[in-house]
Write a structure and sequence with these properties.
This protein has 289 residues and is an alpha/beta fold. It folds into two domains: 151 residues, Udp-n-acetylmuramoylalanyl-d-glutamate--2,6- Diaminopimelate Ligase, Chain: A, domain 1 (3-Layer(aba) Sandwich), CATH 3.40.1390.30; 111 residues, 3-Layer(aba) Sandwich (Udp-n-acetylmuramoylalanyl-d-glutamate--2,6- Diaminopimelate Ligase, Chain: A, domain 1), CATH 3.40.1390. It is built from ten helices and eleven strands. It has a six-stranded mixed β-sheet with strand order 5-6-8-9-10-7. Bound molecules: zinc ion. The site of zinc ion has 7 residues, from loops. Zinc ion binds next to loops.
Length: 289
């Protein structure tokens, strides 16, 4: 049985490799977009941000943000298509107006061109997919599948815990240096909402307004919006708290899920997830090099 399987695999792999090494970046992207039934709107940010669409794809790296270190790692892995969830050039639409004479922008763009990389953003459609690809990665990482509301996949009923215990549990499971918490540490918790990334004040406050939610677990929020709302709610003795994971920590596992899924779409292509790393550190506790 093992011999027969090995023979079958050895016959299949060279064939699929030969077929797939000829795909251009544009063809890989089109195939990804076809493979997901939910299509993004016409003005999607899921576009090529730098590089040549006609480049033959040697390998793929998925990541949360294409930092300089991620780009260097992609080059070391001989991958030339970088699939990123978030922008390359420091704003939602990757507009260069502000950066056209900026040394950081220019060095990054030159690195991408010198190494013949193609950067494609995979944001809108990965969120539109059902299940949401980013949510799938986060929920698996924290082990909350069994607590998920069947018709409301970003809401959970957990075994009874407290805000502080929940925050510590998330910090440990997500390997986060920094997690910020607003609210009473000893507040009892069962109902939790998850709002990844920068979901905005409206979605965040609407989640906190629900009677079945005590804690909102979010990526980031303006400190004078959801943060202040939660602080006021606590000071009015309402059972509400906010755990801010940081944008990267709240979403990066979903890009590892993207790599796993992409391997099913392109079985012959080398595909790696590269962690773009949490940017923050605490005074006195700098990150290990
Ligand atoms: Zn996102």
């Amino acid at each position: 049985m093992i011999i027969r399987l090995a023979l079958a695999v050895s016959m299949l792999i060279p064939f699929s490799l030969a077929a797939q090494t000829q795909l251009t970046a544009a063809q890989v992207i089109a195939r990804i977009q076809q493979a997901i039934p939910q299509k993004p709107l016409a003005d999607t940010v899921d576009t090529i941000k730098a590089g040549e669409p006609s480049a033959i794809v040697a390998g793929i790296v998925t990541t949360f943000t294409p930092s300089m270190d991620v780009l260097r790692r992609a080059v070391a892995l001989h991958a030339n298509l970088v699939i990123t969830h978030e922008p390359t050039f420091y704003n939602h639409r990757d507009e260069s107006t502000l950066f056209i004479n900026d040394p950081v922008y220019k060095e990054k763009l030159a690195y991408i061109h010198d190494h013949h990389l193609v950067i494609w953003r995979f944001h809108d459609q990965w969120h539109l997919r059902r299940p949401d690809g980013i949510g799938e990665g986060f929920i698996a990482a924290v082990g909350w599948q069994k607590y998920q509301h069947p018709n409301d996949p970003f809401f959970f009923t957990l075994p009874p815990t407290t805000v502080d215990a929940l925050a510590q549990d998330l910090q440990q499971k997500l390997h986060a240096r920094i997690v910020r918490v607003v609210g009473d540490p000893s507040l009892p918790v069962t109902g939790v909402a998850y709002r990844p990334g920068a979901s905005g004040e409206a979605k965040q406050v609407q989640a906190l307004e629900r009677d079945d939610v005590q804690v909102l677990v979010a990526g980031e929020a303006s400190e004078w919006e959801t943060v202040m709302y939660t602080q006021d709610a606590q000071q009015q003795h309402r059972p509400k708290a906010l755990i801010l994971l940081g944008h990267s920590t709240s979403e990066t596992d979903g890009m590892e899920t993207a790599a796993t899924w992409l391997r099913t779409v392109f079985p012959g292509l080398p595909i790696q997830y590269v962690n773009s790393a949490e940017p923050y550190w605490l005074p006195g506790h700098p990150p290990q090099p």
